[in-house]
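A.,

Following up on our hallway conversation. Structure tokens first:
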């Protein structure tokens, strides 16, 4: 096996003066949230020709950074050896109302990778993540962030003024009330699972052949097969035999299984949207 050792390689090339600083992405991983994008970004970054951004999530096209910083400033976070294929991974892009048009305007030929997770499981995973943020106090820094999305009421609705984080069903009820009132984009445990709506926004700007859709289980169960598909999609001959670290990233423990009543509710909620999605793209191993 050949070890890619990307960090060491980049330092050596930098010492030789052939380390590029500031590059346009040739592809992006745009979502979905809680669907394994952190693991995928890590796996892809181990390929000797692929160079992921640092940090992983640049969040340029879905935030105020788009208005505050130039495209050149955005590209500065993609650094690596000359001849690399550069990419970034921001799972919020798929859900963002603005990102599709902005990305297409900047990079009309960009290739996009989407990982879809079964929406009920995705929603429960997102709730568990928010619960951990609350219990660790990590939400406070995010609540003060000047780069929050417009209409982000997540902190006001679920975090501020609470002694305990609300349970999964209470979070769903908060969002259902917001949906009924046409209020805000966040919290979005439910709405982020409406994948067909989100894909349609991208297809309005970017041809479908420029998008690769993977299933979450495909990435988890057969990661090398998924990586082979990605490699060919971005113009490589395939995935090389390298010493690959396939440990999952950002895996979390759950306090309990989803309640059966909540599972039944979500099955009904997503029945029609899922059917529309499958009719458009085929079956998904999610």
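Then the amino acids I'd put at each of the 286 positions:
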């Amino acid at each position: 096996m050949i070890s890619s050792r990307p960090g060491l390689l980049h330092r050596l090339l930098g010492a030789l003066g052939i380390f590029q600083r500031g590059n346009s992405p040739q592809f992006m991983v745009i979502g979905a949230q809680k669907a394994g994008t952190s693991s995928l970004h890590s796996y892809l970054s181990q390929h000797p020709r692929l160079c992921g951004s640092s940090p992983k999530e640049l969040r340029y096209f879905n935030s105020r950074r788009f208005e505050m910083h130039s495209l050149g400033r955005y590209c500065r976070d993609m650094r690596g050896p000359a001849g690399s294929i550069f990419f970034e991974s921001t799972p919020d892009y798929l859900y963002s109302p603005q990102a599709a048009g902005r990305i297409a305007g900047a990079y009309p030929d960009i290739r996009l990778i989407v990982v879809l997770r079964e929406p009920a499981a995705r929603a429960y995973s997102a709730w568990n993540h928010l619960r951990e943020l609350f219990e660790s106090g990590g939400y406070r820094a995010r609540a003060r962030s000047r780069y929050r999305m417009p209409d982000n009421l997540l902190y006001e609705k679920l975090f501020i003024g609470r002694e305990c984080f609300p349970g999964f069903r209470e979070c769903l009820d908060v969002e259902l009330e917001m949906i009924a009132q046409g209020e805000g984009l966040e919290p979005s445990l439910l709405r982020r699972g409406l994948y067909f709506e989100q894909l349609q926004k991208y297809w309005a700007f970017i041809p479908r052949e420029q998008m690769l859709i993977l299933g979450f289980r495909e990435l988890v169960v057969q990661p090398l097969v998924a990586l082979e598909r990605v490699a060919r999609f971005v113009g490589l001959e395939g995935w090389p035999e390298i010493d690959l670290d396939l440990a999952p990233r950002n895996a979390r423990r759950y306090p309990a299984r989803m309640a059966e009543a909540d599972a039944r509710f979500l099955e009904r909620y997503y029945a029609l949207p899922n059917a529309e999605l499958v009719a458009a793209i085929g079956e998904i191993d999610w």
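The domain at 25-281 is CATH 3.40.50.300 (Rossmann fold). Curious whether your intuition agrees with the design.

B.
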